[in-house]
Each structure stands twice: as structure tokens, then as C-alpha cells.
Amino acid sequence: MHHLWACGTFWHAPPLACGTFWLAVRQPRDQRIDVAVWCPTMKIASRAFRPFAALLVCLVGAVALAACSADTAVDADRETLVAQVEVFRQATLTRDFRPVVAMLAPRVLDDIASQSGLSIEEMVARIAVQTSDSMSEVDVIDFDMVVPDDAPSVTESGLRYAVLPTTGELEIDGTTLSIDEFTLAILEDNEWSLSRVEGAPQEQVLRNLYPELSDVDFDPR
Hints:
alpha+beta
């Protein structure tokens, strides 16, 4: 449910009136917009105020509808983020590292590819093989990412992002290691990327490539 309140003043030339109005817009679950206008001087200025009130209702109603549309977009982005996180999680648990590597942030993929001299497809395939080889003696017991209730957030430039708590357990030669980190999710070109933040070097790379996230805390514990 959305509530939008506005108050202000109206005026008209004598012998009409001036006064104060309060306007409330309520959006119930059925998505209809209900508007109520209250004015203590309506007895004097009812006819003069009606055109102004109608215009005001239209303007505030448009704002409410825009807010509703924005909320709908955020909800849709959250749903796609949750779905992408599940793809990442399942790929990690099944040791399918190619989609995991392919989900790195686009600017990170472009940067690595330009330095390696490979195409993005070749680079993703090579890193996936290297990751699989390095993890050959590692058992992934558990792995999970949590999408916070208030995700996603948006920067001033309009970039949607989320910082996801990431946990898990690995077993190496009978020794269990715990994962307690964060993953940076970024929405670009209508697709969510997921980049693990496992230390200061990776964090710095992400900040260099995404300066709009310079003030974002990648470890909000």
C-alpha cells in the first residue's frame, strides 16, 4: 500500500477565497487510486477550487502512479535477482563453473578479456577450466546467498545493485572450511551479474570499474 500526502495553499482573486488544502492519495491492494481533498474554506470557494482541485488530483495521482510503476519495476528486478542467485547456487553446488564465471560483472569480464587478449567467450571457458582444476580436491558441502529484504538498491546514476551475504562450507582433505563473505549483484542490460567479494584486491577492482559504487559498503556486517 502506498500513501502520498500533499498540503499547500490555493488562492483566487476577490471576492473568492484563499485557504489551505490537504490531499491524500491512497493505493489499496486492488491498485485503484483513491483521492480525498479537504479544505476548510470550501463553503466559500467550492466552485473556484474545483478546477484547481481536479488539476491537483491529476498531478498527485500521476505521481502516485509513477511511484507504483517504480515499485513494480523494483519487485520485478528482485524476482530476477532471486532467480539468478538460485542459478549461481546450483551451478556452484554441482561444480558447473562456466555459468558461475559468466555471471561476473560485465565490466570485470571486459577488463579481464582486454588484458588477456581473448574474447569473452574464450576467457570464460578458460577460467572455468582453471577453476574446475583448482577445485578438483574440494567438496562443496553447502553454498547459499541471501537476497536482503530491501534489495535491490539504486545509485544516483540509476544503477541497481545489491550486496548479498554469502555463506557455505567446503571440505578439503577432511578439513571443513567455512565461507562467510559477500557477493555484489549488479543489474546491467536487464541482467544480473554476481561477483564474489573475497578480499581487498577484488573489492578495489570492482570500485575502479564501477565508480558509482564508491560509497557502497561491500561488507556491511
